[in-house]
């Protein structure tokens, strides 16, 4: 070959790594009461860091699902065909216990263990975690119908991945999806027009059009429809007890910006058989219990995207030279990398705290339940909102190579905006924060009980806490809802940043806590990543975030 084809100063392949080579994750796992799960979390990290798993991720994204509405003779089949790599990813997630197992696990910390294991595994690819997360979240809604819960909980919690097209009770394990959104309503699910008519056997017949139904290959779906008593929640099986396909007809798969390995569908219900969950007219309240769990799930998904992006940027900078030095040794690049690492650590620490609150809330802790009510909404809003800019900056760290598909960064970049839209867009989540503060005094009290635990550790934090207390108190007593709601994003942002800072000043090293408070609370930074103060200990922050090859 000509000498011009000699390859040098290019970054080597990542090789075998371990996503649990991460003190932030392991410290939080033990702190939140799930240290007993370290072995299973480490197993997930080793799988996620393998070259085989990365290849599955690449293949699943490169070969999106294909819809088959009819067979060759014209009969409806409504099947979605997936690349084998998708099944490897989804099957691994199920085998790792990431579906509904924590709801049946009596050990304290079960939901924390699930959050940590999911974070470790999904750093390889997040699209397949959509049906996994919905299956996990379906149980609290399903428990409003005890007979249905007894039938399906064990199957939803199974660690066996069963793709057979059978009635759900005949399978070794099942997955669950969610079908709420309609084209005329979007987030306003009260505007749903799908009709539910009571049948003679106690089931209902659903007829209507759903604009977004994610993961249509699932075995069960939690669906909203208008019954005689009002908007109600239903469980709809894909395959009926006689083995026949239920009358849910897939019209098309959405051609999405990202999340391409996952199927999101538009479908028609044509007198589809479904069973009532809870009472007629209580559908929104019932399904919101599922939504609140999925909000924690998507916050964790976004934190995993941040961690993947940070890891990729760090790997590149550690092996690429410019101007005579490795990028990671260049002061300005190290500032950027440290800023990305700060955002990633703050996101994970908040997710794990909310997983702990969830675990304690479902075990009867009222104060943690009140804190969870506001904290999950804050985590969902802020972490998901920050992820796109974070992914873009990490991609830029790789320069032109980051814009090329082979790097894997474009997939992360396309995935990054998703969770800010799903499970309640930014406006919906921010308004939910404000409404919770105004309607539930216990939520505001619990939030400040948590925030007060960080008082005295950092002057900038104390000043921010004083401002936040004033602002939230004013919001609670504001008489003009238009004025209040127009500022909901600002209130949610300030509360989320203060909550993250509270956790970091208590649990992270001084270099991390100091840089976060200075840049996020003290105004000692610019608007872009990489504008930390020159006094920030960027070297210590970067070293804390690095993963070494296995």
- CATH topology descriptor of the largest domain: Butyryl-CoA Dehydrogenase, subunit A, domain 3
Number of domains: 2
Classify the beta-strand content into a percent band: 5-15%
Query: Could you give the order of the helices and strands?
Result: HHHEEHHHHEEEEEEEHEEHHHHHHHHHHH
The global form is: globular
Please work out how many helical segments DSSP would assign: 19
Distance between the termini: 33 Å
> Low-confidence runs (pLDDT<50, min 5 residues)?
none
Oligomer: single chain
Category by helix and strand content: alpha+beta
Q: Determine the fraction of residues in helical runs and give it as a percent range.
A: 40-55%
**How many runs of DSSP E, i.e. beta strands?**
11
CATH class of the largest domain: Mainly Alpha
Give a short account of the largest sheet: 7 strands, mixed
Pfam families: Acyl-CoA_dh_1, Acyl-CoA_dh_M, AidB_N
Protein name: Acyl-CoA dehydrogenase family protein
Cofactor: FAD
Keywords: FAD, Flavoprotein, Oxidoreductase
